[in-house]
Amino acid sequence: MPNSASARKSLKQNQERRARNRAQRSALRTQIKKVRAAVGAGDIETSEKEFRLAAKRLDQAAAKNLIHANAAARTKSRLSKALKAAKAG
Fold first, then answer.
1. Are the C-beta atoms of 83 and 51 separated by less than 8 Å?
2. In angstroms, what CA-CA distances link 47 with 35, 38, 74, 77, 83?
3. Phi (first) and psi of residue 67, to 5 degrees
4. What pLDDT score does 35 carry?
5. pLDDT digits (tens, 9 = 90+) for 11-38
6. Gap between the Cα atoms of 13 and 20, Å rounded
7. Which of 19, 35, 66, 81 has its CA 20 to 30 A from that of 27?
8. Whole-number Å distance between alpha carbons of 78 and 76
9. Minimal CA–CA distance to 56: which of 87, 24, 86?
10. What is the value of pTM for the model shown?
C-alpha cells in the first residue's frame, strides 16, 4: 500500500485510468467482432455501417495511445479487405 499522500493519489489515478482504458478497449473489441459477425453472416449493409463505426473507434483509440497506430491501421485494413471480399462473393 502507498505510504505517502502523493503515492496514494498516484494509485487512485492509475486505477481510474486502468478502468477507463479497459472499458474503451473492450468496446473497441466488441465493435470489431460485430463487423466480423456481419461479414460472416453476409449482411453487407449492416457490416458497412458497423465498419464505419469500428474505423472511427480504431482511430480514436490510436489517437489516445490505447492501441498502437499501426495496429489500428492493420485492423482497419483487414476488416476492409474482408468487407470487400464479402461484397464480391
1. yes
2. 5, 5, 18, 14, 7
3. -130, 165
4. 97
5. 999 999 999 999 999 999 999 999 999 9
6. 11
7. 81
8. 6
9. 24
10. 0.88
> Which of 40, 28, 26 lies closest to 75 in space, CA to CA?
28
Nearest residue to 89 via CA among 50, 34, 44: 44
Say if CB 32 and CB 75 are below 8 A apart: yes
| Residue with the three cell numbers 468487407 | 83
Are the C-beta atoms of 56 and 81 separated by less than 8 Å?
no
In angstroms, the CA 4 to CA 87 distance is: 59
Cβ atoms of 69 and 62 closer than 8 Å: yes
Mean of per-residue pLDDT scores for the chain: 96
Task: Read off the DSSP letter of residue 4.
Answer: S
